[in-house]
């Protein structure tokens, strides 16, 4: 029989790199939400031909399968399945002015093998074309 590997619940910057701009915005958002939430959860859902869809939400509970990044002012939870699709991702916050600002997930295709382009697969909202 093989030796069971232990579960590492610590999330590192090599797993998920959060830019300085994104860190400042996450800190601001986490303060605004108050004490009801424990962390910011990063998630992955099925996408179209361009790969997976990435997002964030607030979380009021840690699951037994979450990895945790404790940034001091806020915590980030990523479950182990999602982490397999996003290892090496950089999360940035881009403010283009005029109310157009968003978090951007860079380098996600290195982990998932997605094409990063639209191939007219029919996925809703997948390519912006």
Key traits:
129 residues; alpha/beta; Hypothetical Protein Aq_1857, Chain: A; four-stranded mixed beta sheet; three-stranded mixed beta sheet; 19% helix
Structure description:
This protein is an alpha/beta fold. It has a single domain, classed as HesB-like domain (Hypothetical Protein Aq_1857, Chain: A). It has helices at residues 20-33, 80-86, 109-112; strands at residues 16-18, 39-45, 53-59, 66-70, 75-79, 89-95, 101-106. The chain has a 4-stranded mixed β-sheet with strand order 3-2-5-4. Strands 1-6-7 form a 3-stranded mixed β-sheet. A hairpin with a 4-residue loop joins strand 4 and strand 5 (75-79). The longest helix is centred in the N-terminal third of the chain and has 14 residues, at 20-33. Mean pLDDT is 78; it is low at 114-129.
What layout of secondary structure does this protein have?
Blueprint: E1 16-18, H1 20-33, E2 39-45, E3 53-59, E4 66-70, E5 75-79, H2 80-86, E6 89-95, E7 101-106, H3 109-112
Parallel strand pairs: 1-6, 2-5
Antiparallel strand pairs: 2-3, 4-5, 6-7
